[in-house]
Amino acid sequence: MNSNVLTIEMQKKHQKKMSEEHLSEAIKDSDCSAFKMLYYKYYEPLYRYIFYRTYSNELTKDLLQDVFTKLWMNRKKFDVSKSLKAYIYSITSNLIIDYYRKRSSRIKYKNEFFTAQVITGKDTAEDKISIQNAVARLNDKIKDVFILNRYEGFTYKEIAEIQNISIKTVEKRMSKALKFLRNYLKEKE
Amino acid sequence: MRKTNKKFFSLCSKSLNGELADNEKRLLDELLAASEKNKRIYNELKQVWIHSKPPAVQNIPDIDNEWKKFKTELQMKSVNNNNSIINFIKDRYSYLHNLLARKHAILAYSVAVLFIITGLFLWDHYLTNSSFNVKTSKGERTLITLSDGTKVHLNCESSLQCSDNYNRRDRKVYLEGEAYFEVVKNKQNFIVITPHATTKVLGTKFNVRARGQETRVVVKSGVVVVNKNDEKNDLVKLETGEMGLISGKDSPDRIEAVDTECFLGWMEGKLFFRSQRLNAVVEELNRAYDVTIQISDSTLSDHTLTATFDNLPFTSVIHSICLTLGSEYKYEDDKYIIY
Question: Which residues are within 8 A (CB) of B211 and not within 5 positions of it... i.e. 6 or more apart?
Answer without folding.
Answer: B177, B178
